[in-house]
Amino acid sequence: MKVKVLRKGNATKFDLPDYMTPSSSGVDLRAAEEKVIEPGRWALVGTGLYLEIPVGYEAQVRPRSGLALKHGVTVLNAPGTIDADYRGEVGVILVNLSDSPFEIKVGDRIAQLVISPVARAEFEDASGLTATERGAGGFGSTGLK
Asked: Fewer CB within 10 A of the end CB, N or C, for the chain?
């Protein structure tokens, strides 16, 4: 499957997104702008990438584990969804959960992008639902084990 990529601005300085290892499920997204995110704040960071995702697929923007562990920075709406019909710039909403400002430089790897197939459901009205042992239990109702 091919995904067309249009690069603008600083993104023209970078290679196309690519998988770092043969078993990688995501590619890194790089910042195309400089920004400082203060502690407890968030910001939209542009990548300079515009995608043409094939119909039947989506792109998911996910955090990078190294940024989360080392700096307390993650993707605020993880995973962010990019639909196949979206043609705007790919942006990443980063949040700084640390107690120090986080500086983003052009070219920094700020998130991962995963392309996934989309299953479309057909919803229908129902007068009831099939009973299960779990029922309406949620939010930890199955215990800690």
From this structure: C
